[in-house]
Write a structure and sequence with these properties.
The chain is an alpha+beta fold. Strand 13 (about 255-265) and strand 14 form a beta hairpin. Helix 3 packs antiparallel against helix 5 and helix 11 (about 310-320) crosses helix 17 (about 475-490). It starts with a helix and ends in a 17-residue tail after the last helix.
Length: about 600
């Protein structure tokens, strides 16, 4: 009996010890799971059910002076999947009856609805079959996204993003620039990328084992922030007119390229900056001329030719060294002691010309004879005050020439002379427009600009340009030059241009020889016209420039485009006609 009792006690003890040991194992495992491995296991569990989603901050718009969108962002959708959940399912697949749907049938339907490629989808899924993320198709518009959504494929998930569109296309492509796969590539998109770019946010949602999003499980972890709106001074309607005008004229002249600008005299605002050829930012690949990716009006340096004579005349009058009726005996050619020489564009006998006559006939010899009354340093400093030889201070645009010339000119004896008729020096079309804006504005230069500023998503305005006006020459000097430029239209190099009925026009032509590297100057030309209207109270400056025209190499060939564009400007802005006759100075004595 005693032996039996002892045996039972032993068995009970063994059982109790075994139970205690088993409990101890469970306790240790529980502690390991709930304490030691808790963080790792929570993260693993969360990773399997908690799906992160990027919330894209919308890129800001670029707008014209009237709020018309030149660049905008539209919603696009990527269709993603979880490869580990991709399998056959029961569903309607866009139909009306529930049926068994294979993976291949689903992918084929998605491709048909979205325009995607089944092979690419298969490849993306197969790349990592156990993963929770892969792209099926990218960049769908709302119509195609809704078509995919209607299929009801349970293992497809939308990812919303922002895509760039340009409503005005090639009309303003030279100004806006464009976006690429690596971000902003050109134009204002590039220059003001920090202002325009949105800041992405993020959110997560919970997904069940069947891959379906759990209702009410979305949590925003970081708010997205939209980009700012870039406000320009461009008038998109006028920009279209300028682009059409300059393109038509360039084709007629068989020019390599062309530019046109329209400037508001009183504000320095650029209303149009046209280029030919130009880029359509909605179809960049269609542009084969890489130089058209930007704006040649802003970035292309060239020797401006005789349009610069207006600035030299203004400096002479401002310094009291000449007047519109100042007399000069002007031969066809002029030689210098160091062996250099210059000549006028067309042969003529020695003429008795006034300063007004020198501008009217665009005499190289005449302007240098009077221009030498100013020192080289004085002429250089006046040119700088007019905005030459330096970057455009109020314009932020990629590719502009630096033009860091310093405080004194580094000119040869020949360049010192040639600079007075626009050879041997570099400008851009915008800089020439700036010279004529200052003359038209009674000698006060306002830095030309075409961006007002950027309005951020919180209502602040940043990136506003500094457009502090500065006086270049006296009002009297500017007015006299403006009046003398009417001689050019009435009896000079622009006398063949049809008048603009009811308006007095003041303008200057330019013909510049094109340098060909070490070969010197060749037969190619750059022809241009820069002018203002109405001459008695100028409101607008228009410039047109044609590079290497083949149909005609005379500056007068640029006149029809100038006249067309100036007429459009005066009509569009309802400028009151002139009420007095053009003021003309005697051109000879």
């Amino acid at each position: 009996m005693t032996k039996t009792i002892r045996s039972r006690r032993l068995r009970y003890s063994v059982v109790i010890i075994a139970v205690i040991a088993l409990v101890a194992v469970f306790v240790i495992r529980l502690v390991d799971i709930q304490v030691v491995q808790a963080a790792d296991l929570n993260e693993q569990s969360k990773a399997k059910r908690s799906i992160p989603v990027t919330i894209y901050g919308t890129r800001g718009s670029i707008v014209d002076r009237n709020g018309t969108e030149l660049a905008d962002s539209v919603t696009r959708y990527n269709i993603t999947t979880s490869p580990r959940l991709v399998k056959n399912f029961e569903g309607k697949l866009g139909g009306t009856r529930i049926k068994q749907v294979s993976v291949e049938q689903a992918l084929t339907a998605i491709a048909k609805a979205s325009g995607g490629d089944v092979g690419t989808m298969r490849k993306n899924i197969a790349a990592d079959p156990k993963s929770d993320f892969a792209y099926l198709v990218k960049g769908l518009d709302v119509k195609h996204y809704e078509a995919v959504k209607a299929l009801g494929v349970p293992w497809t998930y939308p990812e919303q993003q922002s895509a760039r569109t340009y409503p005005t296309g090639a009309t303003t492509g030279n100004i806006t620039g464009f976006m690429g796969t690596d971000g902003a590539q050109a134009g204002l998109e590039y220059a003001y990328d920090k202002c325009l770019a949105g800041a992405n946010g993020s959110e997560t949602y919970e997904r069940g084992e069947d891959g379906v999003q759990l209702p009410g499980s979305t949590v925003t972890t970081k708010e997205a922030k939209d980009g700012g709106t870039l406000e320009t001074t461009i008038d998109s309607d006028l920009q279209y007119m300028a682009q059409q005008t300059i393109a038509s004229a360039a084709k007629t002249l068989r020019a390599e390229s062309a530019t046109a600008t329209v400037t508001s005299v009183k504000t320095g605002e650029l209303l149009a900056i046209a280029d030919y050829p130009t880029v359509d930012p909605n179809d960049v690949d269609a542009t084969t001329d890489k130089g058209a990716f930007g704006s040649r009006a802003l970035t292309a340096s060239y020797e401006p030719g005789s349009t610069i004579k207006a600035a030299i005349a203004a400096a002479l009058i401002d310094q009291g060294k000449s007047s519109p009726t100042d007399q000069a005996t002007v031969p066809y050619t002029r030689s210098f002691p160091w062996g250099g020489s210059i000549k006028d564009a067309e042969f003529h006998a020695t003429e008795h010309l006034t300063l007004a006559g020198i501008l009217q006939n665009s005499s190289n010899v005449g302007i240098t004879m009077l221009g030498e009354r100013l020192t080289q340093q004085q002429r250089y400093e006046y040119m700088k005050k007019f905005g030459l030889f330096q970057p455009e201070s109020a314009i932020d645009y990629p590719g502009q020439p630096t033009m860091d010339y310093g405080s004194t000119p580094d000119w040869s004896q020949q360049t010192n002379i040639n600079s007075m008729f626009g050879q041997g020096i570099s400008t851009t079309a915008i800089q020439v427009a700036g010279v004529f804006q200052a003359i038209a504005n009674q000698g006060v230069r306002i830095p030309l600009h075409f961006v007002k500023g950027c309005e951020t998503s919180d209502g602040k305005t940043i990136d506003a340009p500094d457009v502090q006006p500065t006086r270049v020459v006296s009002a009297a000097a500017a007015t006299q030059v403006t009046d003398m430029l009417q001689n050019v239209v009435k009896g000079g190099t622009l006398s063949g241009m049809d008048p603009i009925s009811g308006y007095n026009i003041a303008a200057k032509t330019g013909t510049a020889e094109v340098a060909e590297g070490s070969k010197g100057y060749g037969s190619q030309r750059i022809i241009s016209v820069a002018g203002m209207a109405p001459a008695e109270d100028p409101q607008y400056v228009v410039t047109v420039t044609f590079t290497k025209p083949q149909a005609s190499k005379f500056s007068s060939a640029a006149a029809p485009a100038f006249r067309t564009l100036m007429s459009q400007v005066l009509e569009k802005y309802r400028v009151a006609p002139s009420t007095s006759q053009a003021k003309l100075y005697p051109s000879t004595w």
